Amino acid sequence: MSEPNSSHNLPWVKANIVFGSDGSTTSGGKSAGLSSGADRSRFHQIRSGVDAILIGGESARKEPYGKTPHPLIIISRSNFTDDRQLSQLLAKNPQAIFLPEQETHLSLAQVITYIHKNFGPMVLIEGGKNFVQAFLDLNLIDEFFFTITQLQTGENVFPLSQFFNALSQNGLLEISATKSESDTFYHYSKPHPESD
């Protein structure tokens, strides 16, 4: 995967999500329920080239984030002192940093700026439908990786036609669509800064 110039003075925000073929984004309440071995391998490859990972409170509670290869930034409306699951994750993962929305009052764009200033320009957003869509709606995502599996029994459906339209409306262009036996891997991106 090509990378934008890391010396550029703006953050470069990636996002990664997995869908069932019906647009579901979780199975059994977790995105891992939709993921295949090939998808998980690609997932780790995408993670390897970033400076920090950004997730929401729901992913922090439900997905396996006890250990991460990079700083893990968690934003949530909850206060972790009143949230046992978030408190346990923060105790388990020394790289986890919690930014409670009620205390920081940071907008999503300001969260990206905070990560850029403190950890580096390459930011990876991981999360569910609503979390990722919030950044997409604000045109804050520069590069999008997603997998569509053959599974159709999940929850939290994001209509795929609506999702593809949102990518186009935000200037994200298809770079590749690669099929395996059970999955299709998509890569969309805006033009890299150095190509402007």
Describe the structure.
- The protein has 196 residues and is α/β, with parallel strands linked by helices.
- 31% of the residues lie in helices and 28% in strands.
- The chain has helices spanning 37-47, 57-62, 84-92, 101-104, 108-119, 129-137, 160-169, and strands at residues 12-19, 24-26, 52-56, 72-76, 96-100, 122-126, 143-149, 155-157, 173-179, 183-189.
- The strands form two sheets. It has an eight-stranded mixed sheet, sandwiched between helices. It has a two-stranded antiparallel ribbon with strand order 2-8.
- Strand 9 (173-179) and strand 10 form a beta hairpin.
- The mean pLDDT is 87.
Mean pLDDT: 87
Number of helices: 7
Shape: globular
Structural class: alpha/beta
Cα distance, first to last residue?
19 Å
Total E-strand runs? 10
Largest sheet: 8 strands, mixed
Strand order of the largest sheet: 5-4-3-6-1-7-10-9
Model regions low in confidence, pLDDT < 50 over at least 5 residues = none
| Percent of sequence in beta strands | 25-35%
- Give the C-alpha Rg: 16 Å
Q: What are the secondary-structure elements, in order, as H or E?
A: EEHEHEHEHHEHEEHEE
Helical percent range?
Answer: 25-40%
Topology overview:
Layout lengths: L11 E8 L4 E3 L10 H11 L4 E5 H6 L9 E5 L7 H9 L3 E5 H4 L3 H12 L2 E5 L2 H9 L5 E7 L5 E3 L2 H10 L3 E7 L3 E7 L7
Parallel strand pairs: 1-6, 1-7, 3-4, 3-6, 4-5
Antiparallel strand pairs: 2-8, 7-10, 9-10
Brief characterization of the structure:
The protein is α/β, with parallel strands linked by helices and 196 residues long.
